[in-house]
Amino acid sequence: MNRERQQVSRREFLASSAALPLAAGVITIPGVARGAWAGGSDTIKVGVVGCGGRGTGAAAQAVRADPGCVLWSIGDVFQDRVESSYQSLTQEVFKDTPERVQVPAERRFTGFDAYKQVIDSGVDYVVLTSYPNFRPAHLAYAIERRKHVFAEKPVAVDAVGSRSILASAALAKAANLGLLVGFCWRYHDGMRAVFERVNAGEIGEITSVHTTYHGGTLPKRPRQAGWSDLEFQMRNWWHFTWISGDHIVEQAIHSVDRMAWALNDRVPKQVICLGGRAARSGPEHGDSYDHFAAIYEYDNGIRAHHTCRQIDNLPADNTDYIYGTKGRAVVNGFGGVFKLYDYKGNETWAFKGRSRDMYQAEHDEMLASIRAGTPINDAERSTRSNLMGIMGRMAAYSGRTVTWDHAMNSQENLQPATLEWGPMPTPEVAIPGKYKLI
Ligand SMILES: NC(=O)c1ccc[n+]([C@@H]2O[C@H](COP(=O)([O-])OP(=O)(O)OC[C@H]3O[C@@H](n4cnc5c(N)ncnc54)[C@H](O)[C@@H]3O)[C@@H](O)[C@H]2O)c1
Question: What is the dihedral of CA 254, 260, 263, 268, to 10 degrees?
């Protein structure tokens, strides 16, 4: 994969307004004109790369987001996923409006190059929902071909991939292309109402944050006859760090992102993180940990905490606690809690309305912004949150403190040089003190 390997200092990264034009300066392709599709009458063709659960859902949401949207092509590395997604979209989701799905067999692609075929099939808006490790390459190609993109989180599993995403984000910005990353809680009305108040200083200066993502283990698929090692790992992708980034990056990243949100998207100075496997074993569980506890430290001395767990038969939790000098905020993504309190224990505000479906809202807002000629591009901010998860994992695996500068410039590249259906040893579980921090 062609990866960006530029050196980025923390100061350069923080001064993003200075860093982006540098990257944008290399643009030679013309951008998409402001106001393209203005008036809402023209068709917007949607393509999907990665036809699993999220890809099928996001396909439906993208099409529903605008009356001019049609699903135009779909692709997946596995044939069975393409077909099951196509069946679901045509036989169930759009059963009564078949004109919204215009995906004949010749626009249903399979294999590792399916993403190129989808992107080159005449689409305008690409939904990238494959495994996270492929996102940097898929995004780079989509932006090169000047497509608007919805990219699911995580956008990368390592620092090399993160820099590639940042480069694509800058190119997208310069070309006036939309690039929305699926940190869906940013599109939830209750969550937005709380974080707007927090960011506006309603609970005072923030002194600490603790976010949680405690749940059970994700699917395990026992090996089937005929599966190569690579297929076995890909079918169990959540549990292999080179594909998923491990669960602090793959799943709990929503809560890491909310920590960033609470702190006005400042980046931390460094992180220390403990983690390991207490209840995981067996080949389907690959090399991923089942718990992490991270402490992010900021320039101003604030410490923010994040804990995540994937262990069965235990209580789930997705509460964030945000402490300010005048009060505190408590939100719970699993429980629908969005509240502010003072330090006498009084509830001072609560979100009592109904939120839009956040998965639909992100596409609604994206399509509206594209129609308006001012497409959303939140990829730089999202990549910062994503890198916070990656640096947490790096700290846990190595047992070392990892600075933002180190993570930003790390040469850790988890991707195999080539991918072929065949033998692929299960990676060793990282042992702190032995795992090399790169
Ligand atoms: N925002 C959210 O709340 C949310 C929820 C679920 C999943 N997700 C994210 O969406 C992504 C997909 O998750 P999912 O639950 O749909 O997983 P999934 O396993 O159901 O689907 C992923 C699909 O991508 C395909 N794929 C993998 N590599 C590919 C490649 N190189 N080219 C083409 N297709 C490829 C797989 O075969 C699979 O069908 C992940 O990044 C996940 O973190 C986000």
Answer: 150
Domain that holds residue 268: 186-356+387-409
Q: Pocket around ligand 1: residues whose beta carbon is below 6 Å from it?
A: 49-55, 75-78, 81, 112, 114-115, 129-132, 134, 152-154, 182, 184, 250
Per-residue pLDDT tens listing for the chain (438 residues): 333 323 333 333 333 322 333 333 333 334 455 555 545 458 999 999 999 999 999 999 999 999 999 999 999 999 999 999 999 999 999 999 999 999 999 999 999 999 999 999 999 999 999 999 999 999 999 999 999 999 999 999 999 999 999 999 999 999 999 999 999 999 999 999 999 999 999 999 999 999 999 999 999 999 999 999 999 999 999 999 999 999 999 999 999 999 999 999 999 999 999 999 999 988 889 999 999 999 999 999 999 999 999 999 999 999 999 999 999 999 999 999 999 999 999 999 999 999 999 999 999 999 999 999 999 999 999 999 999 999 999 999 999 999 999 999 999 999 998 899 999 999 999 999 999 999
| Ligand 1, atom 18, residue with closest C-alpha | 52
CA 271 / ligand 1 centre spacing (Å): 28
How many C-beta atoms lie closer than 10 Å to residue 9's C-beta?
A: 13
336, 189 in Cβ contact below 8 A? no
Check: CB of residue 186 under 8 Å from CB of residue 260.
no
The residue whose CB lies within 8 Å of the most ligand 1 atoms, and thus the one to mutate among 51, 89, 118, 129, is 129
Same domain flag for 204 and 243: yes
Q: Ligand 1: which residue has its CA nearest to atom 30?
A: 77
CA 206 to ligand 1 centroid distance, Å: 35
Do 163 and 206 share a structural domain? no
Class of residue 151 by CB neighbours under 10 A (exposed 0-12, middle 13-18, buried 19+): buried
CA 262/CA 193 separation, integer angstroms: 12
CATH number for the domain that contains residue 321: 3.30.360.10
Q: How far does residue 31's CA lie from ligand 1's centre (Å)?
A: 29
Q: Whose CA is nearest to atom 6 of ligand 1?
A: 54
| Centroid of ligand 1 to alpha carbon of 201 (angstroms) | 37
Return the axis-axis angle of helices 358-372 and 53-64, rounded to nearest 10°. 50
